[in-house]
């Protein structure tokens, strides 16, 4: 029955993609790989509570290609530790065979070739099938928790103000969620959705800005398998800084570590035997938090889009990283006895869309949600010779394309594109559709501005963003990646301090140094400032693609990483 | 090498923050010295201890024009264990004085919340003086950032 859904690592796929040099490796990999649905989902149930975690789906209802980063530097105490391990080092650390399905799912190594063999990942109907199977096995012992960044990131989510995701997720019946990009639909819309949500939207760190008091439910108590489980919600602490505060002016965020500690203590006093933090802090922030706040058994991390095949243990706290864009579902079985976690069994389930049979009801629902937009979603804008992807600390090819479009269409010297970690990949030789483009830029403040900035201002921006990414103290990190720069090269030393990381700013078209006192024309998008003017970024990129129907990209060598 | 760099960093944190935001480094140093002088005056020349006093402030300000902060002192507020004053300073503002809260036995607890304006990334400092003259200090760096590129 599952034969159709097993990977057939046969000659057909092999010869279609790999050159002669790879044949040896591929043959070996082929002999070793034969993966079926049961291989992914068979799980020897353990203990009395099963936590199922999805996070950062970014509105991807359908299976996607998503290349993990090849560069993800850690600083300070996190240097060299997961999730700051990539590529071959990652495979070695976790004992994963190169070119295996897990290697494809978890790293960027040979991505384009492996993507053709192993196919797309994710899809809410596959996720639904996994969840249904777990619930069938575990019944009332199960908690489904969504870490947020669920409602934003696609054409259809933008057109429906997040409703497509709300409708689809409601069908999955989560027990709780928290948020980040959710808030970019504006306070009114967020309130409207939450009022109707049939499960808890938790955020102990969201305050009423005027009264400086909690504005959201901090935690909810559940009883599962005879165990009292407290789930605390932690929204992205820097939502009003990384995203437009004017869209939700009455909400204040922050890490608020002292509140987390107080809520944990309150939940314990209230009888909680298992304390779970459903977090959108970002992995390094959660690692620091786990070392500073006692009494949290499990942190379900999010925001930084890391996928780790094993939990990271900090003191007595398990940190779980479940990836992004629907690529993975985490199942964590825990055994709680006498008010304490005695053991666990964990699996990061890679959602191979060709292996896991979709849930028919969810396939139908997703189809209905997308139907009104079907023609536009598949409209082809251009073809690409290059692999388009976003993840990486300093650049991604999709951002190279966006920056090129900004320089060209907006006639600028320098282009700035935010270092978002969401956005799917397009394989070499594929068409770039409206859906692909929107997966990289669908958001509620898309205006592509054009303005004049001094060299000094540009350096200040780069230093500011670099400190948000590379500050040695994780509590000062905002997640995301370095702002992408077009038309200008620079050098960066991540280990330096604020103001001292960026050097060698050079205008690429002339090779001249960028002067602090000189003004430059800068085009960018996604400004957090209210009333930013300009066409939406997708129109800018579409105009560029119309003029350049075949995307060919040189390797981006304009950022030199020092130190 | 690393350790040296970190030590250097710790000593010059205020100046570094200034350089980054494009201000001259001179007023930063002057203001940090102003803050030190106020602490010395407040503490009667003694070096304030860590502990008892907790300053709560955001790591990164959402709006530098109105940054909420709280102070609380672990004190019975009776007998000798009474907080008399808590002073709050913003080391990097043109004028470091933010507020001074006065307490007595009648206060019941020594806790206060206010909002302050921060010109740029800097240390916010709270110093508490007890009835017996003991002083406590807590400090937190609050970043004032441009924002806009996370996600």
Number of beta strands of chain A: 27
Average of per-residue pLDDT values of chain B: 81
* Secondary-structure element string of chain B: HHHEEEEEEE
Helix content of chain A: 25-40%
By secondary-structure content and strand pairing, the structural class of chain B works out as alpha+beta
The total number of structural domains of chain B is 1
The CATH class of the largest domain in chain A is identified as Alpha Beta
Mean pLDDT of chain A, nearest integer? 93
Tally the structural domains of chain A. Answer: 2
Number of strands of chain B: 7
| Bulk shape of chain A | globular
Care to describe what's here?
The complex is a heterodimer of chains A (563) and B (151). With 563 residues, chain A is an alpha/beta fold. Chain A is 31% helix and 23% strand. In chain A, helix 13 links the parallel strand 12 (274-279) and strand 13 (298-301). Mean pLDDT of chain A is 93; it is low at 1-32. By secondary structure, chain B is an alpha+beta fold. Chain B has one domain: Immunoglobulin-like, CATH 2.60.40. Chain B is 25% helix and 32% strand. Chain B contains three helices and seven strands, in the order αααβββββββ. Chain B has helices at 2-11, 13-21, 25-42; strands at 53-56, 67-73, 83-90, 97-102, 110-116, 122-130, 135-142. In chain B, a hairpin with a 6-residue loop joins strand 3 and strand 4 (97-102). In chain B, helix 2 packs antiparallel against helix 3 (25-42). Mean pLDDT of chain B is 81; it is low at 1-29. Chains A and B meet through helix 11 and helix 18 of A and helix 2 of B.
């Amino acid at each position: 029955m599952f034969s159709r859904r097993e990977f057939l690592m046969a000659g057909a796929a092999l010869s279609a993609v790999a050159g002669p040099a790879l044949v040896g490796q591929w043959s070996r990999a082929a002999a070793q790989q034969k993966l079926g649905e049961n291989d992914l989902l068979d799980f020897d149930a353990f203990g009395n509570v099963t936590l199922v975690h999805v996070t950062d789906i970014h509105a991807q209802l359908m299976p996607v290609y998503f290349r993990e980063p090849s560069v993800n530097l850690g600083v300070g105490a996190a240097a060299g530790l997961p999730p700051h391990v990539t590529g071959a080092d990652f495979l070695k650390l976790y004992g994963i065979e190169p070119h295996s399905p897990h290697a494809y799912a978890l790293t960027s190594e040979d991505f384009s070739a492996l993507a053709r063999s192993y196919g797309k990942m994710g899809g809410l109907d596959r996720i639904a099938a996994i969840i249904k199977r777990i619930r069938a096995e575990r019944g009332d012992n199960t908690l489904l928790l969504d870490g947020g960044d669920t409602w934003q990131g696609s054409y259809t989510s933008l057109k429906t103000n997040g409703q497509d995701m709300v409708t689809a997720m409601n069908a999955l019946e989560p027990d709780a969620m928290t948020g980040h990009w959710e808030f970019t639909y504006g306070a009114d819309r967020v309130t409207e959705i939450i009022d109707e949500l049939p499960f808890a939207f938790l955020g102990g760190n969201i305050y009423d800005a005027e009264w400086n008091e909690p504005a959201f439910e901090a935690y909810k108590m559940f009883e599962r398998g005879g165990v009292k489980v407290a789930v605390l919600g932690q929204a992205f602490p820097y939502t009003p800084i990384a995203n437009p505060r004017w869209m939700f002016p009455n909400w204040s965020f922050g890490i608020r570590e002292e509140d987390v500690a107080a809520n944990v203590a309150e939940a314990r006093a209230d009888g909680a035997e298992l304390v779970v933090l459903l977090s959108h802090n970002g992995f390094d922030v959660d690692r620091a938090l786990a070392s500073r706040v006692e009494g949290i058994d499990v942190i379900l991390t999010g925001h930084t889009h890391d996928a780790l095949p094993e939990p990271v243990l900090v003191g007595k706290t398990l940190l779980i990283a479940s990836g992004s864009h629907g690529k993975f579902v985490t199942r964590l079985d825990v055994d709680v006895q006498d008010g304490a976690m005695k053991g666990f069994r964990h699996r990061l389930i890679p959602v191979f869309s060709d292996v896991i049979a979709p849930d028919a009801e969810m396939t139908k629902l997703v189809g209905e949600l997308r139907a009104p937009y079907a023609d536009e979603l598949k409209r082809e804008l251009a073809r690409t010779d290059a692999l388009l992807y976003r993840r990486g600390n300093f650049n991604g090819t999709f951002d190279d394309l966006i920056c090129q479009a900004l320089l060209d269409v907006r006639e600028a010297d320098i282009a700035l594109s935010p270092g978002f970690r969401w956005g799917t990949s397009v394989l070499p030789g594929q068409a770039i559709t409206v859906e692909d483009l929107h997966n990289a830029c669908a958001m509620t403040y898309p205006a592509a501005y054009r303005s004049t900035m001094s060299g000094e201002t540009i350096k200040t921006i780069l230093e500011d963003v670099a400190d948000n990414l590379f500050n040695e103290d994780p509590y000062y990190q905002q997640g995301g990646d370095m702002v992408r720069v077009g038309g200008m090269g620079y050098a960066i030393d991540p280990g330096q301090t604020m103001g001292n990381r960026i050097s060698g700013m050079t205008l690429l078209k002339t090779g001249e140094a960028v002067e602090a006192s000189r003004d430059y024309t800068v085009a960018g998008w996604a400004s957090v400032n209210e009333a930013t003017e300009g066409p939406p970024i997708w129109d800018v990129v579409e105009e560029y693609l119309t003029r350049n129907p075949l995307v060919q990209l040189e390797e981006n060598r304009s950022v030199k990483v020092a130190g | 090498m690393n350790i040296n760099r970190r030590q250097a960093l710790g000593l010059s944190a205020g100046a570094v923050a200034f350089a980054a935001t494009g201000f001259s480094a001179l007023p930063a140093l002057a203001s940090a010295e102003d803050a030190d002088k106020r602490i010395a005056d407040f503490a009667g020349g003694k070096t304030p201890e860590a502990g008892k006093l907790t300053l709560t402030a955001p790591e990164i300000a959402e709006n530098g024009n109105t940054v909420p902060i709280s102070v609380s002192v672990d004190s019975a507020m009776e007998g000798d264990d009474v907080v008399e004053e808590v002073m709050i300073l913003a080391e990097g503002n043109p004028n470091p004085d933010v507020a001074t809260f006065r307490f007595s036995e009648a206060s019941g607890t020594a806790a206060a919340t206010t909002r302050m304006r921060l010109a740029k990334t800097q240390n916010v400092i709270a110093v508490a003086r007890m009835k017996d003259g003991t002083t406590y200090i807590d400090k937190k760096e609050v970043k004032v950032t441009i924002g806009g590129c996370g996600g």
